[in-house]
Amino acid sequence: MIKPAFHHVNLKTTRLQEMIDWYGVVVGATVNSQSNNIAFISNDRTHHRIALLAIPGLRDDPEKIVHTGIHQIRLLRRPDVVLRASETARNRA
């Protein structure tokens, strides 16, 4: 059975700096490369684990709850400890 390792994900956003800041607090990600419309961030030696795209013309979706898309991402600090990113960010605020 092939078990590829997770490498990266691309996320579209209307709030580029907020997303950079949030992933910095939650998973310790730092910016490796950035322009006005994209940031490549990582919390290890890889160039990026997350690409944040702020493409002109994007807008927030007030009805996102009824549309398809990512619902939840869980991150691991250690194999036996699940980190709930939203709770961690809320606790640091």
Topology:
Blueprint: E1 9-12, H1 16-27, E2 30-34, E3 38-42, E4 50-53, E5 75-78, E6 81-83, H2 85-92
Parallel strand pairs: 1-4
Antiparallel strand pairs: 2-3, 3-4, 5-6
Helix pairs in contact: 1-2
General description of the model:
With 93 residues, the protein is an alpha+beta fold. It has one domain (9-55, 68-92). It is 22% helix and 27% strand. It has helices spanning 16-27, 85-92; strands at 9-12, 30-34, 38-42, 50-53, 75-78, 81-83. The protein has a four-stranded mixed sheet with strand order 1-4-3-2, covered by helices on one side. The protein has a two-stranded antiparallel sheet with strand order 5-6. 8% of the residues are buried. The mean pLDDT is 82.
Number of domains: 1
SSE succession: EHEEEEEH
Distance between the termini: 43 Å
**Low-confidence parts:** none
Record field, number of beta strands? 6
State mean pLDDT (0 to 100 scale): 82
The structural class is alpha+beta
Report on the biggest sheet: 4 strands, mixed
Overall outline: globular
* Percent range for β-strand residues: 25-35%
Number of helices: 2
Please give the radius of gyration in angstroms: 14 Å
Proportion of residues in helical segments: 10-25%
As laid out across the biggest beta sheet, the strand order is 1-4-3-2
Task: Please provide a brief summary of the model.
The protein is of the alpha+beta class. It has one domain. It has helices spanning 16-27, 85-92; strands at residues 9-12, 30-34, 38-42, 50-53, 75-78, 81-83.
Short descriptors:
single chain, 93 residues, alpha+beta, four-stranded mixed beta sheet, 2 helices, 6 strands
